[in-house]
Amino acid sequence: MISFLGEDSRFKRKDEIISKFPIVFGDYYEPFLRHGSIFFNLYNHKRVFGKAFLASQDADIARAYNAVKEQPERVQKVLAHCVAKNSATFYEAMSRQLGNPTSLIYCYRAGYPDWDKRQYVSWGKKMTQDLDCIGVCSRYLNKWCEWVRWYNWEESLMSVKENDLVFCDPQDFGCGPNGFLTDRYQWLESFLVALKGQRKCHVVMIKDEKVIVF
Fold it and tell me: What is the CATH number of the domain that holds 30?
């Protein structure tokens, strides 16, 4: 199942990544949410779990997910307009309105974001015109997702309990060339090791494009 944001590299690796998860676990936590390619494919990979708790350090991402969850018909209608208007000029205009959930969804589908600069700078990738997935993703979110929040990643994991699963994929964790990436990863890994030890949960992390199971 492809996310309403379109396909990303994690979608292509979903079989490999989800194969590292237990078949049955408690709740699902993803504190670095973006496309949601792993979350949206848990059920069809026959994983049995409770509820999902999804968080992003990007408020625009959280708003887009909640708009799809709560107002799919409106998102679908506006996105249809964006798809029809797709052009370099239109993309540039929409990239300045990312606080609007549908603008963000369109920009994810139509261009390549530059994460170091926190900008959408490159229009022109082959864009999916699938609008029906908005409704499919909305139903999936309403069935499995307890909340999607704009949260610091540590805060988003405070409710993890025994047998829950935490999937960490901090794709833009460095936030630029001076983001002290090594220190951030060391803190993240130390936090996850402690979390696993204290809460007896499952932890899977992506680092340097490798799937790490704690």
Answer: 1.10.1020.10
